[in-house]
Fold these 2 entries.
Entry 1:
Amino acid sequence: MVRGTRTERAEVALETVTAAPAAPDRLRRVLEQALVFAVAAFAGVYTPGDDSSMLFLAESAGLPRTLYGLRDGYPAVGGSPVAEVHRTGRPLWLGPDELADCPEARRTPSADFSLAVLPLRPAGSGCLVAVGEHPGGFGTDDRACLELIARAIAVPAHVAAAAETGELRADAFSLAVDTGRVEVGDGILALFGIGRDEFDGRVETLLGLTVPEDLPALMSVVEADHMTIGDRELEFRVLQASGSPKWLRLRGRLLPGGEGRPACLVGTVADASTLRSDITDVARVQRLAAALAMAGTVNDVGQAVVAALREPLRADRIALAELENERLVVTVLDPPEPEAWPEVWRTEWRTEWPDAPVRAMPTLAAALRAGRARIWPAGSPLEPALADVGPGGLAVLPLPAGGRMAGACLIGWDRPHDFGADERALLTACAGLTGQALLRAHAFDAEHELVGMLQRTLLPRRLPRLPGAVAVARYLPTTAGLEVGGDWYDVIPLADNHVAFVIGDVQGHNAGAATLMGQMRTALRAYATEGHTPDVVVAHANRLLLEMETDLFATCCYVDADMEQGTAWCVRAGHLPPVLRHPDGSTEIVAAEGGPPLGVLGQAEFPMTPLGLRPGTVLALTTDGLVESAEVDIDVGLDRLTRALAAADPGHLGQVADALLTGAHRSDDVALLLMRYDGMAVRPLRETWTVWRLPEAVRHARRFTRRTLRAWSVSPETIDTALLIVSELVTNALVHTGGQVRLDLSLLNHRLRLAVADASPRSPVKPTHIGWEATGGRGILLVEAVSAAWGTVPVSGGKQVWAEIVPER
């Protein structure tokens, strides 16, 4: 173990690094000593370019330079501290006050931000730049260590020289960014699994062997449009013939082009699993950033943080907590077992998943107020709720986002843990990334819940009980985005044991589509209950959508099923056809002629197609999200749906619906409506009489009623009541309306229904008071008095007034 002052230890470390054989990462390893011995957050070397008019970043270590506003390059004749030290050869030590007066020194919000710029030898070779976050700037020992490091730096020779002579090391490459031609060493080809004779010299050949999810990051390095001059490092995965993908690490820098020479990206590629474990953690930060970019929920963020930190830091436990109204709500615990965490978390707090006020932990509250990572080594005096999380060492990472604290991450060790400079840098970089991701995920969760609530509000809460049939429905929102979709379904009970089954899809996935979906569902239900035929219902909806003057259109499939007769009529408006599963297990896609989508043509026709429904028949209506995607053609998807429906057991319709949704692509909303027709066990008795406007019209209606009810074996007492109701309803229709009048009689389960339809939309009004001198208004009161129930419904522009009698048995 090396003992002595910090400067002496730095000298020994630098001698060890520079005495080793020349390696491509020697300069980086020298700079890493600034992080260890000068406790710098960033260290970098700026050297002149080909034309000496610019100073470019040649190598760096520590946190990303962008956190401190440092650039890839500075003009050599400019007023920046880098240019001044390069010209004068005198070091600069700039604290917060001096930086405030320097217009070209871009600052971070930290009040303790300080900058050190030291010249390199020989004169004109460039500068060493170090960034610190110490209160008061770099101390005496820090400055002495930085001066040692500046003297130890040997500015690397032009890396492209080897490429120009064709002498590439096994792990080196040289890429001409204008042509995409790349020269690579044999070691790189072996990592990609390509023989020298198989390689065509194109960078696209190597990119084609990488994992698709890693291509965007890799393309940002190898494409000239996305690059700036300077250092590059990232990790990516390549596919292998067997087993999981292999992680590789690319290190390189872009060399600017000169006279007649294109810009060139040169560097090395190595197997990431064989590299030193104590190297800089830029790659780990990159992996975490990539994982957090894909994290959609708060739990996803927590799992990404655990995967990025626990194993590299060899931590024993990690907790991620959100800060909500001055309370910490822990969302992820790793390990998840309660017994792995402090006893106080399970006894004094509300649940084993902690939810506690920040003021209950003063040390944690102070760290959150300071807004920076804090580390306590083994034996630090902490409150029990924190001390027992990491008896061997505890790190607390406040997670800043959007100008506030989004939460905190606690990392604990059981055995005494030494915190190196690289670990501190890793924790600081991860804190900012995690805070922003946590804020996005929290918004995602909240919006996702809002979207779900809106969708549930717009769709039927439950399906009605049907005469002679069972129906189930399913809805799956897309996972490709947050906005609510325009898919809908509905089941509408109609008069005379008819039921309308509707499914539709409004173009788009936004609030406008959702609003229009709700309007179209309401309109179709209103038109259907008025008693219109299916083609008229859809035509009315089409006209309504055109009059709304929206840019959106909708598709729809409407099926009106007669549960008594086992027949149905289908109307399609640009939508998928129904699929039938017959009682023998065979399936068919109904060849239903269709009209255009709703809201496209004003004079559109919507033809009706008859369907036969035998007991045991299953009707399936769905939206295109179930049968169509970017990978699957709609015809292939429909064929797959018919096969799955044929293989299902219709006796358990809910299970059938779940099975049909298995493997849905979820790139679009999916709505599914299934109906199994069983047939009505008891059919109602029905008769209809057209009331002609003759002087004896009421007497004819009474005679028809008496004759019909006697044939149905209705008791004489019930017949007398029915004749009284018919007299009043028919008289009102003849006196107060014009046009045709129709009398309908039906009997089902000993419940007699009498209905009179006329052409007037005005409903009868029950009078609140009738005097002795009044000559009318008593009829509707009489009907109410002798019937079990009565009411009125709109029918085809007019109305139907009905009354029901329950005969005594």
Entry 2:
Amino acid sequence: MSPAFHAARRALLSDPLTNKGTAFIEAERDRFGLHGLLPPHVGTLESQIVRRRRVLDGMADDFHRYAFLRELQDSNEILFHALVQADLPRMLPLVYTPTVGAGCERFSEIWRKPRGLFLSYPNRGRIADILADPALDRVKVIVVSDGERILGLGDQGAGGMGIPIGKLALYTACAGLHPAEVLPILLDVGTDNAALRDDPLYVGWRNPRIRGQDYAAFVDTFVEAVAARWPNVLLQWEDFAGHNAYDLLARYRDRLLSFNDDIQGTAATAVGTLLSAIRRTGASLTGQRIVLFGAGAAGSGVAELLVQALRAEGLDEAAARARIWAVDRDGLILSDMPKLTAPQALLARDPAEVADWTRDADGGLGLLDTVQAVRPTVLIGASGQAGAFTEAVVRAMAAGCATPVIFPLSNPVSRAEAHPADVLAWTDGRAVVGTGSPFGVAGVTQVNNVYIFPGVGLGAIAAGATRVTDGMFMAAARALGAMGGAGDTLLPPIDALREVALHIAVVVAQAAVADGVATAPADALTAERIAALMWDARYD
């Protein structure tokens, strides 16, 4: 055998997209010279899944299971995706929330092999060259983060790459994107997390975060390079801090096909679940009094989609906004507060409205004061503030509402506004509860963005959309709310996520046609046609 042949056979085994491990059959072993490099046993994909499950069962905790699955993805990607698809209820918490939080915090500790692209600020002049790799020719979806606001954990720097990797694993599992069609990217512009910069194991650029015009120019260089390399790619912004999340979405949503999952995906998931909840209570959306705790990117996104939904039910904009009370770190948001962001200003209440409200000892209007005054029917948390929904807050809400709808949505579990078991206990079991993380409490729905973003991405791609519109997200939210769940749950089960993604994709593609942004004909956007685009994990 020539040196080139020896190199090629080892390359076949080292590439996670071509490596089958023991599943290479005898004819393949003969053809590619794999004898001796593999044990003689010829396995199947199914037997390999059984072997990996046994390893997972023997591990002590979920973080080590996460690390094992990451290594499996980097060695045999088809097997990784087949394992995830075969048992989504078990695998979803391991490859994404809540375990991905620890994966991001300990990313430098477990990094082994290249996956995705790290575009660091010192390499800003090389971005186009880095993207030019022919191995990336098939890319259809990019998930990008700068690592500044990872879940509720804050600045994780280069460790934030765990989020794009995890999100794209779900694009493959739920929406059927081939793993060669997805690309995770981390914009490494430094970190303000001093502990990371001082950690000798940290793999990122050891520099305080670049901000201002330098940051804007860097992101613009990145977007221009992406648009030139893949004119029709879908770019999903993920876990950017609030001060950047809205700016980037506004700046680029009409320049290329893109959306922000923290703003728009969270909003559609929360609104869809709320529609399911109020249908169960027999009430109308326009009759709800909604308190929103946390008015950053996620909370503000939820509020704006709620306004759209309320207006669609017949309210004018002023009346729709009057149904929402937003509370942030400084209390109920009032129009005379300094330094409100543009989205927060839209949610601000008139100080005259609250002049006679009971205030706390410091003269402020905190969450408890607001709940006691408003007597809300819905309480949504998107704050990242663990335990913010205290017993006093929940009991005050339950005292004014027969069937309170309470969604502590912050991730991971350590940042949840309340434990759902406590919420049920404090409301004597009357609350309808949805959580961002899985808690394993009977009757509690996991309100996870995975119900929305894979279907939105698949629908946008199938439609050949030129941009992602608000109408596409509203259609996704309504479709999710109409699907409902079994028993006490508000949404379909996790093991139905592939069917959910297909259904969402169809309505999103149709909404793209209605909004005039689709390039594919409407008659090509049937469930059967879109399902044919979805890949199943199997060996060629």
